[in-house]
Amino acid sequence: MEISIFRAAHLHIYFDELREIGVPVESALARSRIPLWVMDDPDAYVSVELSLDWLARSSRDVELMEFGFRAARRSSLASMGKPLQHAILQAPTGYSRLQSFIRCASLEDNVLSIRMQAEGDQFRVVSTIGGFDRNPRISLAEWVDLQAMISIVRSVAGPNWCPQEITFVSDQRPTAKVQEAFPNTRILVGQPCTSILVGKRLLAEPCPRNGGIGLDQPILQIEGRPDEDTTDWSFAAALRAALRPYLADGYPALSQMAETFHMSERTLQRRLQKCGRSYSDVVQEARFDVAQQLLLDPSNRITDIALATGYENQQHFARAFRRFAGVSPTSFRRPGAETS
Predict the structure, then answer these.
(1) How far is CA 19 from each of CA 24, 26, 47, 127, 241, rounded to the nearest angstrom?
(2) pLDDT by residue (tens digit) across 210-246?
(3) Can you give the CATH number for the domain in which 297 is found?
(4) pLDDT of residue 210
(5) Can you give the pTM of this predicted structure?
(6) Same domain, 74 and 178
(7) Are 60 and 256 in contact (CB under 8 A)?
(8) Is 211 a domain residue?
(9) Sequence-separated (6 or more) residues with CB below 8 Å from residue 159
(10) Co-location of 46 and 144 in the same domain
């Protein structure tokens, strides 16, 4: 997999932390190759590598280990996508909640894999970010994944639970604030994997009746499931998801996306050919994905949807939509929902 993407929600948790240190987030993002639209859509997918590079450049003099820790504290189960929240909160024990995370983790990050391995009376929960083990900025991603795993265990054990051990692939030493937050936790850096140690007995306990997400938060009611099985990402599916935030600025050039994912145009086209697709095919599919989602909201005007999907006018959009759906955008909507 040469296209690494994650939900923009994982970038969002850093925005407030950047503002805390005086970074004008919107203007800093505008100077990057990350589309500004991700600020409004936590479920958009964005390049992992571009995001880590931008965060490292924007973090000023704050050490990355410290920066990642401070941002990750803003994350919780509610930061995860709704399908993953649903899978986790329906599980009755901590063990089964972690198993749900293992099955669905790639909905959050297409190069993320989670596994559990027994070590005596403990389970080691291991996170692997494919292709990033030697990235000097990996601690930023490691903290996000660690916080997800810790949040799941805390949904059973309570908000003050801390793992017996945390390991990092990054060789950056934990700062005083990190050690203060995990006073009784052994923290090891420069390790083969990112992981936490959790007691087997604890994970066998039934989950609290409120779902373990705090009495001030309702148990989430999730409607629907993903349109496709994104737990098995192909190159074309990853590119299709990555294209969506760029559409509002017009047709994303092949050269732009090749540069975004650090490959030549020829390599990108060749990889798509192996999937039986062309670049234009995938762009049109991404446009249709966005269009049908926006059409479900009757307050969205057809002309605005055309612009949001990168078309110059409503007529071009309507013709393209009909080629995919067999009906016009107006007919696709529920009767009486048209607002053009």
Answers:
(1) 6, 10, 22, 29, 28
(2) 555 442 333 333 333 344 444 568 899 999 999 999 9
(3) 1.10.10.60
(4) 52
(5) 0.82
(6) yes
(7) no
(8) no
(9) 214
(10) yes
Residues sharing a CB contact under 8 Å with residue 145, sequence separation 6 or more, in sequence order:
109, 112, 114, 127, 129, 194
Residues 179 and 240 placed together within one structural domain of the fold: no
Identify the pLDDT of residue 15: 95
Mean pLDDT value across the chain: 88
**Look-up of token digits 């192909």:** 234
pLDDT tens-digit map of 173-214: 999 999 999 999 999 999 999 999 999 999 998 887 555 544
- The residue ranges of the chain whose pLDDT is under 70 are 1, 209-232, 334-340
Structure confidence at residue 215 (pLDDT): 29
* Residue 149 CA from chain centroid, whole number: 15
